[in-house]
Amino acid sequence: STLGAGVIAGLPESLIEDVTLENVSIEAAKTGLEIRNARRVKMKDTKIEPKSGEPYIVRDSEVDGADRAVK
Fold this sequence. Notes:
The protein has 71 residues and is mainly beta. Helix content is 0%, strand content 65%. It has no helices and four strands. The chain has strands spanning 4-9, 16-27, 31-49, 56-64. Strands 1, 2, 3 and 4 form a four-stranded parallel sheet that branches. It is globular, with a radius of gyration of 11 Å.
């Protein structure tokens, strides 16, 4: 969505795998970064700043580092 920080999205039968975001800063218009149907997604020195809600919207995914990311 153009209103959010971005989307990393696979399908239940075809997951997105092995994605790393490093030294990334995003100021979202409205919402955070949505990650769904993915595994082995890594966040290193990321900063997501949505105007409302959580920086990361994680559904059915394995994400490392989102809890330590700068908010």
